Amino acid sequence: MEPSGFWSFWQHIPENIDPVIFEIGVFKIQYYGLMYIVAFAITYFLAAYRVEHEKRFSITVEQVKEMTVNMLLGLVIGARIGYVLFYNFSYYLDHPLEIVLPFQFGNGVEFVGISGMSYHGGLIGVLIVSGLYVRKYRLDYRETCDLFAPVIPLGYTFGRLGNFINGELYGRVTTAPIGMYFPLATGTGRRHPSQLYEAFFEGIFLFTVLWFLRKQKMPKGATLAIYLIGYGLVRLMIEFFRQPDAHLGFVFLTFSMGQLLCSAMIAGGTLLYFYLWKKDTSEK
């Protein structure tokens, strides 16, 4: 295929993808939901593999399964609440039922599904439910973080592919040939496929780094700190290519809400690492 033919094919991929697997009436089953299931299946199997082969974790495979289910619930609830608080609080203050119901009530009643999820809210939700589970069964929270932190990023690859299939969270306008035409985007120009950038760097790249570091000598629990720093840095950079939310735009100077939240992640991860390093040193 000639280069021009390849780029023409590449640029029109989003227009040729149907995000719906099948639909019955107004209800639709989309690839995005399937990607969530795949992401958590990968998280479970990789964590279970580590428990069975690395022999340094006190948690059982059955507890890994239960915890993964709890994390899924924490992610969905936290991501929804995070979106409401971080991205569209004023709207949902006037439409509180739309926080939990898959309907819009602006002009009559319209089924729209639950739209609007925040990664950072989901992260908080996962950390909370994980902490509650660990406390209930008297597990070591730092050890549990070291178990899950290296395997979770690979799931992002599929989550971001779900965003790409949906044609949402697309990038800013570009004249580079890598740009694509997204049907949901305003205007006619090409845009960065920022979902694919995130799928690679937040997913495959970060997973590779953490998977390599998992056996290196570090303070107990430090994998979580490195995860927070790594994800924050990667996402902070990719946000320069991603289109800010239309109703928010740039929140501070040329920084989006996502970049501000990622900056907080980086700061929190850095403080956590030094805290764990100091704690590890004092325990020796």
Structure keywords:
284 residues, 10 helices, two-stranded antiparallel ribbon, globular, mainly alpha, 4 strands
Short description:
Helices cover 60% and strands 5% of the residues. With 284 residues, it is mainly α. β1 and β2 (27-30) form a beta hairpin.
Report on the structure:
This protein has one domain. The chain has 284 residues and is mainly alpha-helical. It has a two-stranded antiparallel ribbon. The chain has helices at 3-11, 31-54, 61-87, 89-94, 119-136, 141-148, 152-166, 194-213, 222-238, 257-283, and strands at 20-24, 27-30, 103-104, 110-111. Helix content is 60%, strand content 5%. Helix 9 (222-238) packs antiparallel against helix 10 (257-283). Strand 3 (103-104) and strand 4 form a beta hairpin. It has ten helices and four strands. The protein is globular, with a radius of gyration of 20 Å. The termini are far apart.
Topology (SSEs and partners):
Elements: H1 3-11, E1 20-24, E2 27-30, H2 31-54, H3 61-87, H4 89-94, E3 103-104, E4 110-111, H5 119-136, H6 141-148, H7 152-166, H8 194-213, H9 222-238, H10 257-283
Antiparallel strand pairs: 1-2, 3-4
Main beta sheet: 2 strands, antiparallel
Q: Distance N terminus to C terminus?
A: 62 Å
- Which overall shape is indicated by the principal axes computed on the Cα atoms? globular
User: How large a portion of the residues is in β-strands, by DSSP E?
Assistant: under 5%
Radius of gyration: 20 Å
Give the number of domains: 1
Spatial strand order of the main sheet: 1-2
Arithmetic mean of pLDDT: 89
Backbone structural class = mainly alpha
Q: What is the helix/strand order?
A: HEEHHHEEHHHHHH
- Please give the count of helices: 10
Helix content: 55-70%
